[in-house]
Amino acid sequence: MKDPDSGKLILLVEDDPDVARIIEQVLGDFGFQTVWCRSGTDLLRRLRTLSPDLCIVDLGLPDMDGLEAMQRLRLQSTCGILILTGRAHVSDRVMGLELGADDYVLKPFEPRELVARVRSILRRRESTGGAGNYDLAEFAGWQFNLANNTLLAPDGESQVLSTAEAELLGIFVRNPNRILQREKLMGTRDLNPSDRAIDVRISRLRRKLEPAPHSPALIKTVYGAGYLFMATVHWLSTS
């Protein structure tokens, strides 16, 4: 049976040729196509002609900080983003997740674990489909298109959510007015229940959806139980 990940395109943004060579070899062994970008500028140039499924981004790039490169990447593409870096500071991890990264792996890394993380992100991207044959959710004046991760505000302003944000909002719109435990909100991520990534994503969604994020009306915290998405959701088809 053909590997569903075979042929997926991954851009590798890494200035160390030895590290890049190892990653390209490992990903190639599992059927992925890779393109090596030696800098942030190289990445942005290649995005003009390539549509990657995922980008692996080092934070220590020679021409710009990896977080800046990731921000500019997110403006041009809805691909998955995996941060791969030697920077172990919690602030870098949280900032990377807040800026739209789907996962964060520290160097030195185990090659097979890296492949597992890559596959997990790609599975989550493919799983953010609609409810049945419907992929447009309407709630509280908002519209969320699960087919392309686009969120349309009541005032008509549109933005594209990161894969992780879209997965989380997808879980909420499919389960309105139900208390969801953290384990449910983790989706396909292999996280410890105490991992702050879920809290970071909840906070990011609140800033996008709530007029007053510190006093949320849509995403309520139910202390000791989980989170509650308080909205009536209507499903439409975009086809």
CATH architecture of the largest domain: 3-Layer(aba) Sandwich
Strand order of the largest sheet: 2-1-3-4-5
Average predicted local confidence, pLDDT: 86
User: Segments where pLDDT lies below 50 for 5+ residues?
Assistant: 129-133
Overall structural domain count: 2
Give the strand content: 15-25%
Q: What is the count of helical runs?
A: 8
> What coarse outline follows from CA principal-axis ratios?
globular
Largest sheet: 5 strands, parallel
The tally of beta strands, per DSSP, is 13
How much helicity do the residues have? 25-40%
CATH superfamily of the largest domain: Response regulator
Helix/strand structural class: alpha/beta
Cα gyration radius (Å): 18 Å
**What name does CATH use for the topology of the largest domain?**
Rossmann fold
Order of helices and strands: EHEHEHEHEHEEEEHEHHEEE
Output the CATH class name of the largest domain: Alpha Beta
Key phrases:
239 residues, Rossmann fold, Arc Repressor Mutant, subunit A, 2 domains, five-stranded parallel beta sheet, five-stranded antiparallel beta sheet, 13 strands, globular
Please describe what this structure looks like:
The chain contains eight helices and 13 strands. The chain folds into two domains: 9-127, Response regulator (Rossmann fold, 3-Layer(aba) Sandwich), CATH 3.40.50.2300; 136-236, Orthogonal Bundle (Arc Repressor Mutant, subunit A). Strands 2-1-3-4-5 form a five-stranded parallel β-sheet, with helices on both faces. Strands 9-8-7-6-13 form a five-stranded antiparallel β-sheet, with no helix packed on it. The protein has a three-stranded antiparallel β-sheet with strand order 10-12-11. With 239 residues, the protein is α/β, with parallel strands linked by helices. The two termini are 30 Å apart. Residues 129-133 have low confidence and may be disordered. The protein is globular.
